[in-house]
Amino acid sequence: MGGRRRARRTFRQPWSPNLTRHDGHPSYPGQPSCRRAILEGHSIDRSPSTRPHQCLGSSSSSFRAKVLYARFTGGTPWICTWKCALRVWPRLPRFSNQMLRYQRMPTGLVHEIGLPAHRAMPDAYVTAHHLRDMLNETSLDDCLAWSNEPGLLPRVPAGADRGKPWDRISTETLNVLIADRDVDVRFSAQTELTRRHEDKPSQIAEPAQGTLGFE
User: Fold this and answer.
1) InterPro entries annotated for this entry (predicted)?
2) Listed residue (76, 20, 26, 23) closest to 48, CA to CA
């Protein structure tokens, strides 16, 4: 009991970078000062991260980033829920903020708070529910990486092949679409071409050899 009381007194003192444990290593918040003081959730030899990841979420991060310049956001990275929805829920027919809301019916979302649509607070409220569910299905690193790329469309958005998945589009058509003026179409077509190239088996040259013929 005496050892436990000493451990509690140690934890209550203000943390300073100059504080050290009994073994000479620095002491961090949430970390025991000695092995006798270890509690559930503590790590004796590993410094836990006490600083959460900082990022901004938006249903259209490319637009928000143009309006909210880096000097207002401190260079904080953006997560685009539209681009992430294309990857996480590719089978859905639409991916706008409000369409995702009605298609997915996120748990805990209060209908009235999310209205009227296209207003700052209601849209932010709906976006937060989408982002929560995305992070439950994939990693933060994936969301940040996808948000830094053009949108990977699950289907052709327009033209004669509208609505078809990219793997059903001819290579000739894909070569035309990689020059499209829409950056998301270009990126999606190029991604499919790259996939086909990677999946294509390598051609192993057969040795040039004559045949032995017997008359």
Assistant:
1) RNaseH-like_sf (IPR012337), RNaseH_sf (IPR036397)
2) 26
